From TrEMBL:
Gene3D superfamilies: 3.10.450.50. This is Nuclear transport factor 2 family protein.
């Protein structure tokens, strides 16, 4: 099961790295939400807002971009995954994803993040 969750998070990573809106949309559930901090600034948006305002205008990530899933916890059809990102749009992030499996497919339903 961890591999299915890793694959769901990897869709997000691959979509962000390639600046591919369709892949990031596939990673998120339709009503996904996110909250967090860009430096001292609090940000709240939907998954679609993230796609439109962050992913679509971005260039593909360069050679400084790296990511690692540092933890996964699963309870039934829900999961929590922690993703460390370095060099995404010039910053380093720690992302806490909430995931839900519906109709056999894992998708990100929430993202809580901060720059580190």
């Amino acid at each position: 099961m961890d591999q299915e969750i890793r694959a769901a998070v990897q869709r997000y990573v691959d979509g962000c790295a390639a600046a591919d809106p369709a892949l990031v949309r596939e990673a998120f559930a339709p009503n996904a939400r996110m909250w967090g901090y860009l430096g001292p600034d609090y940000v709240e948006m939907s998954g679609e807002d993230f796609v439109v305002n962050v992913v679509e205008p971005a260039e593909p990530a360069g050679p400084d971009y790296a990511s690692q899933i540092s933890g996964i916890d699963v309870t039934g059809d829900t999961a929590h995954a922690v993703l460390e990102e370095q060099g995404f749009l010039g910053a380093n992030f720690r992302n806490h994803f909430g995931l839900v499996r519906r109709n056999g497919v894992w998708r990100i339903v929430s993202k809580v993040f901060t720059t580190v």
